Amino acid sequence: MSKRKPNNIRQSDWDAVDSPELSDVMLKQLKPARGPGRPRAQNPKQSVTLRLDREVVSHFKATGTGWQTRINATLKAAAGGSAMTKNDRYVVKHGDGWAVKAPGASRASAVAPTQKQAEARAKEIVKKQGGGEVRIQGRDGKIRDSDTVRKGRDPNPPRDKKH
């Protein structure tokens, strides 16, 4: 087995070290420095190549990091899964104001001049539709906050630890 010198070690330092060659017995006794890695998922995701319209990709990328996960959630919901409810809303930058949008929607449900007004309107919409999640984006397009909105008279309201 030949030794390869890494680029970050000077040749003089490399030559100064006198390491014995490892025998077959020594090699068999070696153990990995770390574990086998991440545990296997019960429901692993499948890697696919998918061609999407440029507008679709731009829309999801504009929602900030995690856009591929949101595409997955939207597709899962369309396929009958329960990744996101139709009641969820995003508060996003929209021209000079702020818009309230449903996941995967191309048009805004409402537009307001300030983020605070758009957030209040999003919460009204979600509450009327039976509760859900309101996610608020910052000016940079990244999700900066989310709020769980319960339906009008929920006997078992969700416990929101953030608010």
CA-based gyration radius? 26 Å
The count of strands amounts to: 5
Biggest sheet: strand arrangement: 3-2-1-4-5
Rough outline: elongated
What's this entry about, in short?
With 163 residues, this protein is an alpha+beta fold.
Note down, in words, how this protein is organized.
The chain is α+β, with helices and mostly antiparallel strands and about 160 residues long. It has a domain at about 55-150. Helix content is about 30%, strand content about 20%. The chain contains five helices and five strands. The chain has helices at about 10-15, 25-30, 55-60, 65-80, 115-130, and strands spanning about 90-95, 95-100, 110, 130-135, 145-150. It has a five-stranded mixed sheet, covered by helices on one side. The relative contact order is 0.10.
What are the SSEs and their pairings?
Blueprint: H1 11-16, H2 24-29, H3 54-61, H4 67-78, E1 89-94, E2 97-101, E3 110-112, H5 115-128, E4 131-137, E5 143-150
Main features:
elongated, 5 strands, alpha+beta, 163 residues, 5 helices
